[in-house]
Design a protein that fits this description.
The structure holds 2 protein chains of 2 kinds. Chain A is mainly α. Chain A folds into 2 domains: 58 residues, no CATH class; 235 residues, MetI-like fold (Orthogonal Bundle). Chain A contains 15 helices and 2 strands. A two-stranded antiparallel ribbon of chain A has the order 1-2. In chain A, strand 1 and strand 2 form a beta hairpin. In chain A, helix 5 packs across helix 14 and helix 11 runs antiparallel to helix 13. Chain A is globular, with a radius of gyration of 27 Å. In chain A, 31% of the residues are buried. Chain B is flat, with a radius of gyration of 31 Å. Chain B has a two-stranded antiparallel ribbon. Chain B has a two-stranded antiparallel ribbon with strand order 3-4. Chain B is mainly α. Chain B has a domain of 196 residues: MetI-like fold (Orthogonal Bundle). Classes of the chains: A mainly alpha, B mainly alpha. Chains A and B meet through helix 3, helix 5, helix 6, helix 7 and helix 8 of A and helix 2, helix 5, helix 6, helix 7 and helix 9 of B.
Chain lengths: 325, 354
């Protein structure tokens, strides 16, 4: 009772001692904010910055593990970079095909994810089950399991496979035959490049489905944040579903398209199933290729950063932000 | 409209219900008007198409799992027999038995459980703290620090492979000579010499991953921080303000008000962290050499007791590897079926809407 009274006095009279010592609420909150992010800051300063710095440093050096323990660095300048570009026989080739693949995959993944998200957002029987199923690959077909699949594809490619090895390729083959798609499109006379693109997509559909789980969830979250009143007023004005999609849904989810595109680029180029990344890993595993691999991956990183910047810049021209107030 | 039809007759009236009798169009005609038109047919067609499409995609996702499971029960003869396609003719548990016994499954299971569990709990907790800090507090450098988070997300860990290995192989805190373990190892003063080498060798221990998790730098932690931040941004500030008014401090508000609210989100992040650490084979190959503790990646091999030296050997070995995969995934699948509801909820509520 007594204590609370004195506390009240403090508040009302504003004791000068407290004023001096205690900072304002904003400053105190800012200080608390620092405490919350402290683990991350410690990690960045003690671990991450040295690790990134070392990685850049190593890419300009030759490394030698000493027999007595410890290691020695010899400065070699740009040798690792020029080796990667001009001496290594397959790096440039892998890089070009990898980036081409990336550019093909991005729109496919984003459009597929949006399409499925719209389907899953509507009323359909077994919606919860579908959502759960579509999210399975994100959690389960990663890392080790993807590795096992890759090994199996390699193993079965050597001999004609008769029994399915569980890599998902045959499931697609059972639904659509690639040859059929080719025939269909060549009859439509739309140019060979488009045909090639579509055939590539069908070949890759399993891959694309597997990689679009998170994007789908992001789109789903975005779709659910659109107020149903907008759709209602649209349908009262007599808009068809098609018009509603182009005039309402697409602009409203356009920020998510930007987020998803950037996420897809990052995700696909940091995943180890990526062709360039697996090549870099194989270089790392070879003897004395460690420094070469860090030079290679820094170059790759720079190229992908340029791609991300270009894509984000291009898309942000078309992004529509709803004014919230 | 203007012609008033026979007024509805009230046939029965009680306190709570009323039955009214009026002339209606016959049932058959009403049904006809409702169902036999273009609009309805179009709706049904679209619905069927949607459903079939989703079913097809689900099939593509689930089929590999089915074929993995079915081939894991096949006996050796089934791989030579061409007529055996999807259903094993001589079902056997020999493959499972061999993997569990020969490849030391349970030991790898316990080791991985310990590693993935501790890492996932740490990552969830740390990312939650950091995400909350970014979402709700305006301090100097907030924006720049968050850019650093994005940066850690973008830089692939393969780029840092070598330097990460070197960092934890020769673990030290500080720069050059002025570092903790250099000091303890007698690098500066000879009389202080606790360690044999002026560094700590953390390779083949759980420490590298624990340290990375505790500082929010492990695999995809940037994404978790991002998710947590957007989730906390969605929680109205008034909630905390009222707690502050009642005299609760920042940390107490966080523990007592915010944490109970964010349980679905915490479970989602935990599931991500746990399952990605569980099936991870990147860090386990960087930080663990062949002499290290037995973890999941090391049990993926053909067990000694199974003889694969005959015609269908490639298929058989693939099936064995898939069986290893199933054994690895099984605990995750069980976990996922229990957590699935929370995960979908958590991701929807995370509102990664920028």
């Amino acid at each position: 009772m007594n204590a609370s009274k004195s506390k009240n006095d403090d508040i009302f009279t504003g004791s000068s001692k407290k004023r001096k010592r205690g900072a304002s609420l904003d400053v105190r909150k800012a200080r608390a904010g620092w405490w919350f992010v402290m683990p991350f800051i410690i990690g960045i300063v003690i671990l991450y910055i040295p690790i990134v710095f070392d990685s850049i440093k190593y890419s300009f050096h030759e490394i030698k593990i000493l027999t007595g323990g410890g290691f020695k660095l010899n400065w070699v300048g740009l040798k690792n970079y020029s080796d990667a570009l001009f001496v290594d026989p397959t790096y440039v080739q892998t890089l070009v095909t990898g980036i081409k693949q990336l550019i093909v995959d991005i729109p496919a993944i984003v459009i597929f994810a949006l399409f499925v998200a719209i389907l899953l957002n509507g009323k359909i029987a077994g919606r919860a089950a579908f959502r759960a199923i579509f999210f399975i690959p994100v959690l389960l077909t990663t890392g080790l399991i993807a590795d096992i699949d890759n090994q199996n594809i390699l193993a079965t490619a050597m001999e004609g496979a008769e029994i399915d090895t569980g890599t998902g390729e045959s499931a697609v083959a059972q639904i659509v035959s690639v040859m059929d798609v080719q025939a269909l499109f060549s009859n439509m006379m739309v140019g060979t490049e488009l045909v090639e693109y579509v055939v590539n997509l069908v070949n890759n559909i399993f891959n694309i489905i597997n990689r679009s789980g998170v994007q789908m969830m992001i789109f789903l979250a975005g779709l659910q944040s659109i107020s149903p009143a907008i759709y209602e007023s649209c349908s009262i004005d007599g808009a068809s579903g098609w018009e509603t999609f182009w005039k309402i849904t697409l602009p409203m989810v356009s920020p998510m398209i930007l987020v998803n595109t950037v996420y897809t680029v990052i995700d696909s180029f940091t995943s180890s199933s990526n062709r360039v990344m697996s090549y870099i890993s194989s270089v790392y595993a070879s003897s004395s290729g460690q420094v070469l691999s860090s030079a290679m991956s820094w170059m790759y990183f720079l190229i992908v950063m340029i791609i991300i910047a270009a894509v984000a810049g291009l898309l942000s021209l078309f992004v529509f932000y709803q004014r919230r107030d | 409209m203007n012609k008033v039809e026979t007024a509805p007759k009230i046939t029965k009236e009680t306190k709570n219900s009323i039955r009214v009798d009026f002339e209606r169009t016959p049932l058959l005609e009403r049904l006809k008007a409702r169902f036999v038109n273009v609009y309805f047919f179009q709706k049904v067609l679209v619905y069927v198409f949607k459903f079939l499409f989703l079913l097809g995609i689900s099939y593509v996702i689930l089929f590999p799992f089915y074929s993995k499971i079915s081939s894991s029960f096949m006996s050796a003869e089934d791989f030579v027999d061409v007529t055996v396609n999807m259903v094993p003719r001589h079902p056997t548990l020999a493959t499972y038995k061999a993997i569990i016994l020969d490849n030391n499954y349970w030991k790898a299971f316990l080791n991985t459980l310990l590693l993935a569990g501790s890492c996932a709990i740490l990552q969830t907790f740390v990312c939650c703290l950091v995400g909350y800090g970014f979402a709700k507090f305006k301090f100097k450098g907030n924006g720049i620090l968050f850019l650093v988070v994005i940066f850690t997300m973008i830089v692939p860990h393969q780029t840092l492979q070598l330097s990460m290995f070197m960092k934890f192989r020769y673990f030290d805190i500080g720069i050059g000579k002025f570092s903790i373990f250099n000091f303890l190892g007698g690098g500066l003063i000879d009389s202080v010499n606790v360690l044999k080498d002026p560094w700590l060798r953390l390779i083949n221990t759980f420490w590298p991953l624990i340290i990375l998790s505790a500082t929010g730098l492990a695999f995809k932690n940037g994404l978790y921080i991002f998710m947590m931040r957007s989730f906390f941004k969605g929680i109205p500030d008034e909630l905390e303000e009222s707690a502050y008014l009642d005299g609760s401090g920042t940390f107490r508000t966080f523990v007592q008000i915010i944490l109970p609210l964010s349980i679905p989100m915490l479970i989602t992040v935990f599931m991500f962290a746990f399952s990605w650490q569980w099936t991870d084979n990147y860090y386990t190959t960087v930080f663990f050499t062949t002499t290290g503790p037995l973890l999941m990646p090391k049990i993926v091999k053909v067990p000694k007791s199974l003889n694969t030296a005959y015609a269908g050997s490639n298929m058989y070995e693939a099936a064995i590897r898939n069986t290893c995969g199933i054994l690895i995934l099984l605990p995750l699948l069980i976990l996922y079926t229990f957590m699935q509801r929370f995960i979908v909820q958590g991701i929807e509520r995370s509102g990664i809407t920028g």
